Amino acid sequence: MWDLVIVGGGPAGLAAGLYAARGGVKKVVLFESAVTGGQITQSGEIENYPGLTEIKSGLEFMESWAPQAQKFGLALESAEIASVAKNADGFFDLLTAEKEKITAKAVIFATGSTPKKAGFEGEEEFFGRGVSVCATCDGFFYRGKETAVIGGGNAALEEAIYLAKICKKVYLIHRKDGFRATPSAVERAKAEANLEFVLNAKPVKILGDAQNGVTGIRVAIDSKGETDINVPGIFVFVGRDPKNEPLRDGKGGFICAMNDRGEALIDLKMRSSLEGLFAAGDIRAEASRQVVCAAGDGATAALSAIEYLERKRG
Q: What pLDDT does residue 44 have?
C-alpha cells in the first residue's frame, strides 16, 4: 500500500511529489501516462516564472522537475489511472487502464484540463508558432502588434481585454452576434477602444508558413463571405475539458463535489469533499491556469496530505 498516490505529472503533480517526498512521506508515487511535465511542455517560450532569467521552451523548463522530486524519494510510474474510489476501510482503490489495482491512504488528483479545439484548418499545425491558448503566457510576445481572439465566453473576453492593454489592436472573433459571457465582461470589452468585434464569423483557416509562423486568419462572416485578418498571433478560447474521468462514480456522478463544468470543488488547503482526496492545478474550480499557481497548488495539497496522514496515523 502507498501512503500517497499522485495522479498527474504536470507542474501541480510534480510539485506535490517534491513536497510530499521531502516532507517525509515514505511511500509516495506519481502516475502519468503521457510526457511528464504536463501541457506546459508544448509551450514554445516561457519567461514569466519567478526566478527564470532566460527564456526557455516548456520542455526545457520542466526537464529538471521530475529528477528533483525523485532525488527526495518520489517514485514515478508510467501508467494511466482509470478510476479512483474509496473503499470500506477508508483507503483508496485505484485502477490503471491495464487493470492493475493500487491502494493508497491518500490521493492528490492533478490531471489538469485540456483546451477545446475550435476545429479549423491550421489550428494544430501552428500551435506554439502563433496559435496559443493562454494570453497571460504568450501575450507579451505580441506587445504593440495586432492579434485575434476566438471565442465568446468569459475566458475569451477576459483574455481579449488583457491583450487590448498591451497590443496595438485585438480582433474578437465570435460565431454569433451575442455572447455567453456575463454582461459586465461584454461591457468592459466594448470599452476597449482597440478591441474590434468580428461577429457572426467562423474561423476557416490559419494563414502562415513554416518560416514565419502565423501571418493571419481567414474567417467566414455571414454578411460578407470570407475575409482575411492579418495578425501574427491568434488566441483560441472556446472552453476547456477537465480531465476528470477517473473521479466518476459509475452512477452518473463523481466521488467528490464538482461544479457544473466538472471541476473539483476544494477549500484553500486543496481538500475535496471526500476526506483524503485532494485536487490541485487546472482540475480544480477557479484555477488560474498558470504554472506558478499550479505549483503552489501542488505544494499546498502535499502539505495538507501530510497533515491528513499524520492525523490518521496518530
A: 62
